[in-house]
Each structure stands twice: as structure tokens, then as C-alpha cells.
Amino acid sequence: MTLNPTLVRVTDRIRARSRDSRAAYLARVEAAACKSGTARTRVSCANQAHAYAAFTPNDKLVLRQARLPNLAIVSSYNDMLSAHQPLERMPPLLKEAARAAGAVAQFAGGVPAMCDGITQGEAGMELSLFSRDVIAMATAVALSHNVFDGALCLGVCDKIVPGLLIGALQFGHLPVIFVPAGPMTSGLSNDDKARIRQRFAKGEATREELLESEMAAYHGPGTCTFYGTANSNQMLMEVMGLHLPGSAFVNPGTPLRDGLTRAAAERLARITRLGSEYIPIAKVIDERAIVNGIVGLLATGGSTNHTIHLVAMAAAAGIHINWDDFAELSAAVPLLTRIYPNGSADVNHFHAAGGMGFLIRELLGAGLLHGDVTTVMGEGLARYAEEPWLDGDKVAWRPAPAASLDPAVLRPAAEAFSPDGGLKLLTGNLGRAVIKVSAVKPAHRVVEAPAIVFDSQETVAEAFDRGELKRDFVAVVRFQGPRANGMPELHRLTPLLAVLQDEGFHVALVTDGRMSGASGKVPAAIHVTPECLDGGPLARVRDGDVIRLDAEAGVLEARVAPGEWNARELPVPDLDAHQHGTGRELFANFRANALGAEQGASTFGTTLPGPVAA
Predict the structure, then answer these.
(1) Residue 450: cis peptide before it, omega within 30 degrees of 0
(2) Buried b (16+ CB within 10 A) or exposed e, 464-491
(3) What residues have CB less than 8 Å from 540, skipping those under 6 apart?
(4) 474 with 592: CB under 8 angstroms?
(5) Which of 136, 265, 358, 414 could be stapled to 97 by a disulfide with Cβ–Cβ 3.0 to 4.6 Å?
């Protein structure tokens, strides 16, 4: 199949833009690689003794002989978060499978995992974005012992997978497989959950009813079933070739889930330098894989958070992408799924309808994915058009369904829900921003209304409660960027603004902060860059300024005369309340060193270079 010309053009542009940084990255990878034998033979006898001391006699003997690979397990397990609780039982399965495959596996280290669902609207949310970089550093610490021949990364949710990948890419000479936990089984429908949230916002439902609804939706082990950042992560790892095929959305605690976990260790043993085919992660994650990830995100209406995370993940491999790349690809990539918040189905319905195998086959057939990439399964992405099944007690693969089993949830490329991916780049005198319109009805995609300026989501909620927002307006929520307060998600605004939109008012949100990965039906220009604290023009907006948000034409501007606009002084915010409590004191250096949203909001400075101009 001939590749789509937009895919080719964007990939070539990224490759040219990244030539020097990618070459430097690959040179570092080559210098770090162990050319023969096991990695642990390069460290001293005393170092090796420390690495083996606590192991069982048989495993210790294998490690000492240094003829078989040693696999690192890096996990985000904790038993408070539903998505990570299933990871508890995986290390024993991985160790057992590694032994059967002629290898040894050691639990190398844990990384923190926080839940945006728990911290939404709370002070802890201001640590969330930066937790990604903490996870990357923790992954590097785990692998820094330099006695491993490959790594198994266990993680699921919003910042965990990007952080694990950024950390793992610093050890680009190692083969790495990501091992997912899977989504929880379906509970209360997403539409019903959203309806109760809006009723509560209007005072029509009690807190007891709201809690009952939320607990019926989030009811057991596994990832939340809506298509937010966590499940977008799982899609990305699959379409970028870091999962075993079809493993993203298999429920935890099932025989197939356990079989896929074991198969990941078996496969990793084979792709170490001591196995039959050496596939380091630096070979898997190249410019084509990054573009495939963007295409997958667009084709599924995935999380806007990845307009930040994918930039940082790519930069960790010496690859520079920016929002122009997302926008240009979005115009060429059709929307093939309807998963909440872009529809009523959840990821279990998507998986049952044909899932990742069907999706990838359709995109490959339409020339919208690079099929000639390297994956953890070997050469080519075609293996990812298959789905796993249990042949006795072993995982086998078969072709994904030839037709969607539910065209209301998953469609072929020729019958797409929309001809574009629904992610738009907005530009104008307010800066650059992204907007996800796949869940926004066409009638709401252009809003021109007076601004009401807020410096926090709490003050928006207070104005709503006072009944002051029953009119057409654009909520400008400023000083919410990485350097100001860690760029928390402003998820609590979604039900409030949705209520006003349903009442017939023309409303929109413009902010230098983030929305949830479940950004929904209200038009929201987010990640406005430069951020207000960094001199961004959004800080110049005053109450009453007419703001035009045009998602069709890609315009975001304040209708203010240029002379008046340029003469306005930037306000000096009082951010003291965002610098103390809930551990925020410890993140002062992160806030001070954070790059902009379009540069991935990375806090690593020059260690991981951000994108340059196209």
C-alpha cells in the first residue's frame, strides 16, 4: 500500500529536523551497548556479589555463570490505585516465565504512581505533570545498576507510561517490553456517570447519589474504562510496537492476561543480545514509530495530554516534534472510533468490536501507518493486526476480525466517523493552543464572546455557584502553566461549563493549563503557549475583551486594537499558595526549569533537548 503523502511529508520533516540530535542519541546508545556476553560481566566481582546476594541459589548460580540474560522488572505497583493493583501478581509470573525461557528476572525498582482521578481539583494535582519526570528518573535509577540485558516495564496510567519510556530510552541499548495490566470490567455507563455529575453541579443530585454513581463506574481492579490518557497510553505502546500484539485491553485477572504477561518475559529473553534476535529499544522508537503514535492518537480521538507527553517521549530518543506535526497529520487521519468521551462506548466495547488489531490493519491498509518499522516482535507492524488467544496454556495469535463487530464503536477507514482526527492547532494573538473537537458538536466549534478572567478553577466554580455565569462568555483561566503551578488538569470545569452549554449559552474555555484526558463536549483551547507566567499574551486579557475561538479556521485571538493590546502591562500573579503544602515545596526546581507545553513541559533542561522550529 502506498503511504499517504502527508504521512511521508511530516515524517521526512521530523527526520530532517532531528538529524543531529538523533545521531547524537544513537552514538550514545552504541557506546553504552555491551558487544558480547552479559551486561553484568562488565562490573566488578564485588558489584556482582551485591547484585546476587538475596537471590535463590539456583538463580544465583545462573547469574554467576553469566551465560544467560538477566531481565529487569520496573513496576509502578501500588494497591490503592485500581490500574496498578493488578501489577502485584505480575513479577512472580515474569520470573517464572523468564526461568522457563532460559533467563533470570529481577525486580529492579519501583516508580511512583499517582492518580489524576483522585487528585482532580485538589492540591496534589499540581504534582501530577511533574510526576512523569520523577518516574523517568526513578526508572533510570532502577536500571543504573548496569547488570541487566533487558527490561520489562509495568505501568498503565497518565504519567507513568510516558515516564517509564523516557527513562528506558536513556538505556537505548537494552531491549524493553511494556507489560500492561488491562482495563477493569465495564460498570456504570460513561453517559450515566456524566449525567449524574451534571445533575450534581446543578444541585439536582445529592453527594450520596454522586458517590454511588462514581463507585459504580470505578468499581474494581484495572484501568478506568473511558478513553482518557491511561488508555491512550496503552494504545500508543501497541501502535509504537512496545507491547505484545493485542495486549493493551485484556482485562486483569484472566487467563489470557496472565498468558500475555508470561509471554512478554519469554519474548524479551529472545530479543536480548544473548537471544536469537537483538532488538534494542532505540531501534524500535525512531521517527516512524513516533509518527505512528501520533496517527494512532488521532484515529482514536485520544488524550490531549499526549500533545505534551509524546513531545517529551520523542525528545528522549533525540527526535523533535511539535504541534504543527500533530495538526497536519490530524487533517489527513480519519477518526475510526467512538469511545467515551467521543462516544458512549468504553474501551471494553472497543476491544470486543475488533480492538487494536482491526484498527491497525485499517490504518496500514489506508497507508496511514509506517508498516516497515521494527517492533518487539521483529520487523514490520503487520503482526499488530492480529489478536491473541490461548492455545492450551500458551498465547497464540490469529488475524483480527475482518469486519467491525460494532460499527457504532469502530469503523473501517473507508467509513470513518470523521475525515479528520479532531485535533486542531489554534494560533493568534493569544499564542498557540490545541483543541480536541472530536466530541464537540459543529454548532459549538466557533465561539465569539466576552472574556471573564479567572486565576483558578476554584473561582470559576464559585462564580457558577453564585449564578454569575448564565450568559455567553469565554472563561479565561490563566497562570495554570508548568512554571506557574505545575499545570494541573482543570477537569472540574467540564461539568459546570457543560451545564451552561446545555442551557443554550455559547461558552468556551481558554487556558494555559490542561484539561483531563477525557476532554469532552465544551470547546476548550488548552495548553496555551507561551504560558502566562512566561510572558504569554493570554495574561493581557481583561474582563469584557471579545475572544474568538474558531476551531474550524484554527484561530484564537482577542479582538482588541493592536495599540491597546501591546500597551497593556502583564499582571504579577500571587502564586504563593501553589508553592507550599502537599509536597509542592519539593517541586520548586521542577517549576523553575519546566519548558513550555509544546516543548513537552520537560524539567530536564538541556539533557533532553526540546523541539526546534519546523
Answers:
(1) no
(2) beeeebeeebbbbbbbbbbbbbbbbbbb
(3) 558, 560, 565, 568, 570
(4) no
(5) 265
What is the C-alpha radius of gyration for the chain, rounded to an integer number of angstroms? 24
The CATH number of the domain holding residue 444 is 3.50.30.80
Cell of 181: 495490566
Helix, strand, coil abundance in the chain, percent, nearest 5? 45, 15, 40
Same domain, residue pair 390 and 431: no
| Count of all residues that appear for the chain in the document | 614
Helices (H) and strands (E) counted in the chain, each on its own, are 23, 16
Residue 600: which H helix or E strand, with range? none
Condensed to tens digits (0 to 9), the pLDDT of residues 101-124 reads: 999 999 999 999 998 888 888 899
Same domain, 358 and 432: no
Per the domain annotation, does 153 fall within a domain? Answer: yes
Asked whether the beta carbons of 488 and 514 are under 8 A apart, the reply is yes
**Do residues 329 and 472 both lie within one domain?**
no
What's the confidence (pLDDT) of residue 609? Answer: 44
Structural domain boundaries, residue 480: 423-574
Q: How many CB atoms lie within 10 A of CB 210?
A: 16
> What was the pLDDT predicted at 519?
64
Contacting residues for 6 by C-beta, under 8 A, at least 6 apart: 328, 329, 331, 332
Instruction: Name the least confident of 348-352, 513-517, 548-552.
Output: 513-517
Give me the pLDDT at residue 43, please.
Answer: 77
pLDDT band at 220; cut points 50, 70, 90: confident
Weakest mean pLDDT among 36-40, 93-97, 489-493: 36-40
**pLDDT band (50, 70, 90) for residue 219:** confident
Let me know whether 168 and 299 are in one domain.
yes
Average pLDDT of the residues of the chain: 93
Residue 595 corresponds to which amino acid?
A: L
Q: Is the backbone peptide bond immediately before 341 cis, with ω within 30 degrees of 0? A: yes
Whether the Cβ atoms of residue 178 and residue 168 lie closer than 8 Å to each other: no
Contacts by 391-400 with C-beta closer than 8 Å and gap 24+?
Answer: 393/259, 394/259, 394/263, 395/244, 395/256, 395/259, 395/260, 395/262, 395/263, 397/245, 397/246, 399/357, 400/246, 400/354, 400/355, 400/356, 400/357, 400/358, 400/360, 400/361
Indicate whether 461 pLDDT > 60.
yes
Coil vs helix vs strand at 41 = helix
For 411-437, what is the mean pLDDT? 95
